[in-house]
Specification:
Shape: globular
Mean pLDDT: 94
Structural class: alpha+beta
Distance between the termini: 65 Å
Number of helices: 10
Strand order of the largest sheet: 12-13-14-11-3-15
Radius of gyration: 22 Å
Number of strands: 21
Low-confidence stretches: 1-17
Amino acid sequence: KILLINNFLIGMSKEMINDLSNFGFGTQIRKSPFYDATVRWGAKGFSTYNHMYIPRDFGNPEENFWNLVNEAILCDVAVERQVQIKGPDASKFVQMMTPRDLSKMQVGQCKYVILTNQDGGILNDPVLLKVDENCYWFSLADSDVLFWAQGLSVNSDYDVDISEPDVSPLQLQGPKSRDIAIKLFGDSIVDLKYFWFERFRLDDINLLVSRTGWSSELGYEIFLLDSSQGDELYERIMQTGKSMGLKPGHTSTIRRVEGGMLSYHADMDINTNPIELGMDRLIDLDKDFNFIGKTALETISKNGVSQKHIGIEIFCDPMNGPNTKFWNILNNEEKVIGKVTSAVYSPRLKKNIALAMILTEYSLIGTEIIIDQGSTKSNAIVVDKPFYDPKKALAKS
């Protein structure tokens, strides 16, 4: 009887795995408006991000990488949930949340920003969109900024309304994304500048389209403004771009590590400050506006940091996928001096490349170190990052 029950459960598990339309952990993990479409187009596996499912497997991740860098991919990134700050004091409130000077930000502009707490720790690194004169969206990394913002509002005198709007982004990324976008939206899309957005319409589908994306490649983010039209939008884009080389895909760990793009909870968290990450350009300490964490960051800037985020090259056989845990970094005496935060094999560079946090005295380019991968140890060296296209000429093209 036990054997029969086990066989039954094994059979049910296989059936459930093969039927992703019924896949789920319950309603506490949300499915995006594009979920059914991604399954239909071949999504084989998901992870969670911002309490939502995100497609992470359309087959071979190396093939996904080559699709991205040679052609174009469409990614469901509705997990980049939006926090809307709206009202007469929206500009003042948003400025209070970030160290980056927003005084010259215009409607239609996007900015990459850091959100810090009172200790200077990073709470999130969203893209900020100025949607209207008194309305902003934080397009989030993986943390609960909605709660943070509402908590700040309750304890302030700012006249703002804070909510999560019905907005769900897709990412159209890769060298052929502009040609596909022209076919979708017309020639005017060519005039859209890097880190700016415009409103567009596909038949009865209202959209906001920005020249942004988490890929280090030329690309667009397409913000759907009515979740009920998610399936229709995904299908429309895929059918339009299919003959032009567009493939369904997912955000590429290979490409984002090549580009030195940081991932929240991996490369930074609430215990990391932006100075350690070399994000000084995003911290305007000398300006006359105040923000949460300013005093702490002034002190850190004055005293210096004990650790820095670096790039490294690991000398071992090609890694079979990215690291799934932090690896210790050792010096020649095998003392722990840091940790590898993100590591992957780049088939283009034919190298194992990684991002890491290390004690400042070991952060100089050319420093030789040892990586403890658990079952084995490998030699490594500190190198410049980003590893490819350091000036982001592709993304800005």
